[in-house]
Amino acid sequence: MIFFWAFVVGGLICVIGQLLMDGLKLTPAHTLATLVVSGAILDGLGIYERLIDFAGAGATVPITSFGNQLVHGAMTEADNSGLIGVLTGIFQVTSGGISAAIIFSFIAALIFKPKG
């Protein structure tokens, strides 16, 4: 059943993004920023962690999870290290994903030729 809920929740997040672009005529950049900020706000309110517990990858794969991770890391480290933890927590939680994106993008740039 977890696969079903992951599909439904992940699909709903994608539908919301598509509706933002189609209905409100937002650019992809504005839609991306809106979804990241939405994930951050939901985590700040304590809602996004419950969504992750319920839907698993359906809530952790979409871009809203990036905002969730930023706030979650900052709040966790703020509890442990005080105000400086707000800054360091953001980097600790997101550094793996960002590093992987940079490394894989670099490898793709070496392997493939751009069109143009």
From TrEMBL:
Alphabetically ordered keywords of this record: Membrane, Transmembrane, Transmembrane helix
Pfam annotation, one family: SpoVAC_SpoVAEB
Transmembrane segments: 90-112
KW Iron-sulfur (keyword) present: no
Domain of life: Bacteria
Protein's name in the database: Stage V sporulation protein AE
Organism from which the protein derives: Salicibibacter halophilus
